[in-house]
Structure prediction request, 636 residues.
Amino acid sequence: MLDTLAFILIVVPFIAALGCYFLRAEGLRTPIILATSALLVVAFLLLLGQAPVTYSPETLLGIPIRELIQVGDFLLLLLILYFGVRHKSALIMGFAALQLGMLAYLEFGLSTHEYGHPTFYIDNLALVMVAIITLVGCAIAIHAVPYMKAHEEHLHLEKSRQPQFFFILILFLGAMNGLVLTNDISFFYFFWEITTVCSFLLIGHDRTEIATRNAVRALWMNSLGGVGLMAAILWFYASLGTLDIQQIIAASPTTAYMMIPLALLCFGAFTKAAQVPFQSWLLGAMVAPTPVSAMLHSSTMVKAGVYAVVRFAPAFADTYLGLAVAFCGAFTFLATAALAIGQSNGKKILAYSTISNLGLIVACAGIGTPAALTAAMLIIIFHAVSKGLLFLCVGTIEQKIGSRDIEDMRGIYAKMPVTAIISVLAVVTMILPPFGMLLGKWMAIESAASNIIVIIMLALGSALTVVYWARWAGGMMSMPFGGKVETETQPVLTRWPLVGLIAGAVLVSVAAPWMYSSLVAPALGGAEPYAVTGGSFGNVAGTFAVVPFFIVIALAFVFAVMAMRKTPVTPAGMPYMSGIQTGDASGYIGPMNKRVDVQISNYYLGALFGEDKMTRWVNGGAIGLLGLMFVMGGLL
Prediction:
């Protein structure tokens, strides 16, 4: 059974990706994507009852699997080197050549190629990640089918690029499953590099000048992270003589100078997770089609970075390195939340919000207590569902109105009532109780109670997030509609991923106590920082009753709908605009007897939170914290 499930989760997406590329008819591609998604979901559900378990396959389709991975590592780095030459990027070429040299030294100079450890280790943390990859990732892939058709019609392409697009998108899912399930750090590196190449190709998919420029930036930054990861692997093997991730985690706290390679690993993870000062590659990824943004931000690319930090967190728990990691994550959380306030581009707000929440997860991993790791795992789940949904909503709205600016989304309920309601509900799941993200932030802040600097940054960052989320959601439901709301029609493969994800966002919040008991707590090695009683979280610091809150919300919603239906429709009055009215609400006669047009807009505090004002200082502070991380790693 385990052989079959691992094959479906890791290898089947590679086969399906080839099918999408070579079977170019749309009538074949859509069934391949739907069938692959169904297989992945079923495989995940069957895997739930298997963990924790180890698995060591010897061959894949008759080929020794370890030799296959070794060859794949070199081919991937040669491909990255080719991209560097093609785009004349000295940074990409340099980082790829450096990794090739280190890999050759590992394979032909250090490694004995004698392996006695399990290839795959499937525990509850891995299951959490597989759940996100399969459920959220597959919803994004399905939504991409009608989206990419409309996207290419808008671009007026003579020849469709959808075969290449879906080849990379589906391949991404298999690579991520391999990354989170493997127990061999050389395998981890192989899947890590696949995600680097896939993100580069997806960001540059439209082949415009700006898309290519941002794709190249993403590749060199992630290649820099690859250098850090490979350097860490070399150090681990030279010191411990093993590539077994579980052995590395267990041996690191008792082995001299092991905090330095762990700092290198965290550095590589920070680039992948776009932590400041590496946030620019993820912001640049916004030029890609929206399903790419959703995939990179919610279920795959950036989650690989935070997964690496959370996975290795026990190795640096209660150390100076852990403290430095917590500082880096908390600083990213606060700084990017502030930067999001100055944005009106919907995808950019989502990008900064993603980086911010990833920083919160990193901070929890750095704190490293069972309570903090609980918060990290739950935030990973809640964030993936809600943020993936929000990206898909923005893409759907953009294709309707031709803009991703939240000012242009003002009153979008009148044109797209279903999508508007789903979008607002998605925002609500990010900031209001009893939904999961607020629960996760509460747990994170509580776990940081012993560190006043970290707790202040987390509290301030949490407060700032409310500003940009409430501003956006309020604008979508604003403006008088005159009683006329258009009927919204959408393709089935557009509508149902949105409905499924919003249902999932509510469901995971309702089920938070049970997810904690069945998935999170068992991953903490027997430590249970929270007691779950009667559907609520409880500990000495207080309680968070989830189910009673949802019952109250459901009753309030029913009452509100009934009250709304009884409310009479009254004609909207003209607003007074301090001048002689012009007969409509669009302007007035002002000074010098000239017409003054009225513009309604949110306030973005650009003088305080603008990118041009903050980015240089944020990056400078982040670079200082990275230096501190390596210094503190050296101090143990």
Q: What stands out?
A: Residues 317-525+591-636 form one domain. The radius of gyration is 25 Å. Residues 538-543 have pLDDT under 50 and may be disordered.
